[in-house]
Amino acid sequence: MSDIEIRTLADTEWRESLALFRAALHVTPPTDEQWAVGSRSYEPGRTLGAFCGDTLAGTAFAWSSDLLVPGGAVVPMAAVTRVGVRSDFRRRGVLRELMRRQLADVADRGEVLAALRPTEPVIYGRFGYGQATRGAKTVAAPRNAVLRPEVSSGGRVRLVTPAEALAVMPGIYERAGRSRPGTMARPSYWWTVAYERAFAADEHIIVAVHSGPTGDDGYLMYRPTPGALPGTNATLAVDDFVAAAPDAVYGLWRFLLGVDLVDEVTVWTRPTDEPIAEALTDPRAITSAEHRSDLWLRLVDVPKALAAREYGPATVVLEVEDPLLPSNSGIYRLTPDGATRTTATPDLSLGVDVLAMLYLGTWRAGALTTIGRIRELTPGAAAKADTLFAVPQAAWCGTFF
Ligand SMILES: CC(=O)SCCNC(=O)CCNC(=O)[C@H](O)C(C)(C)COP(=O)(O)OP(=O)(O)OC[C@H]1O[C@@H](n2cnc3c(N)ncnc32)[C@H](O)[C@@H]1OP(=O)(O)O
């Protein structure tokens, strides 16, 4: 029998939990000033502690959020973060017990999905998570980057104070940040940890807001790193770039590439199908472009998750295996009319982690079959699944948590 006890932590125990998580990332415990902000980033009832005897040996947390899925439905989702185990209690099953309990809690709350951003991709597949979206990281040399004449000139861009940024960003995110599958609700707790914490710590961050004919419709947040000597060129790193309409997207790019005394601009994440290099007169002004891991998803309630999204014109019968949440295991028929359980002979067989990779249309079933992640039981079924799961726009999350 396991000697690990898992329970929900009281608010008086959150600070110890945060100290444990930070220690797992080799960071010092929160100071009183940091905790004054950090304590407001905890959603009550969602911090788990793993105890070995009296010792808090591990912790895991989640915010209540939701996810936009193909077709436009919004599905309740737990955003899992702050997972850590003390280094003197590692590899004895503490994380496993935390994950087991957390997924049971998520299911009890009626949340259909769970999502996270892994520190190490090898950890979470065994708990049913799969990489569900990709993001494009782009590095540009602004001195050579000139937008083509056909590209929208965009609207007005203004720099805002921290107070104005905190007032306007959540609304802009709701209006312009949720247009694609894969985008998630940012709870108030998220804004506290992502922005209030950074402003309170006097971090050097700049927020630029774009306004079009209907008002504020995009913003970006960047961190400048000055050159070695005053007056020498800086680099800019964009951590948060929220815009959907082309006017706002390219208006913000135009602003960014026009900031003076800058050698290099890095945009950490944008959708993978945005043609920024092709928007320039010289595409080689983009010095590096790579697609990186974005959101990892776990289908906690497979029937509800499958029923929530839209499908392309094909019919496929899937056999899904979910050892951790066995009620999800079974055979599902997917058609443009929806998803139902069936006793029909399956065409494809896959784990619930791989289903998460297909769910938002990021990966192709045909490609995953070639590496053995999907077993094709009916010849040609993987190609049909590609039609079924295809999406018109690449899924993307873009929210780091
Ligand atoms: C969503 C987020 O918050 S991501 C942040 C995750 N946290 C960190 O990376 C902080 C530093 N690391 C840690 O705190 C811990 O090492 C953790 C949380 C990653 C793992 O905790 P542990 O209690 O040691 O894991 P546990 O013993 O339950 O292992 C479960 C399984 O995962 C495997 N595993 C755990 N961590 C790793 C790892 N880093 N690399 C490879 N395998 C791992 C174990 O080998 C075990 O495998 P099994 O299924 O074959 O038995």
From TrEMBL:
Superkingdom assignment: Bacteria
Positions with a binding annotation for acetyl-CoA: V83, G84, V85, R91, R92, G93, V94, L95, R96, T119, E120
Single GO biological process annotation from the record: aminoglycoside antibiotic catabolic process
Every N-acetyltransferase domain range: 4-202
Pfam families: Acetyltransf_17, Acetyltransf_9, SCP2_2
Catalytic residues identified in the record: Y124 (proton donor), F401 (proton acceptor)
Transmembrane stretches, start-end: none
Molecular-function GO term, any one: aminoglycoside N-acetyltransferase activity
Residues spanning the signal sequence: none
Keywords: Acyltransferase, Transferase
Annotated HAMAP family: Eis
Self-association and partners: Homohexamer; trimer of dimers.
Database matches in NCBIfam families: PRK01346.1-4 (NF002367)
Family, similarity comment: Belongs to the acetyltransferase Eis family.
Protein name, entry field: Predicted acetyltransferase
Record organism: Actinokineospora terrae
Taxonomic placement: Bacteria, Bacillati, Actinomycetota, Actinomycetes, Pseudonocardiales
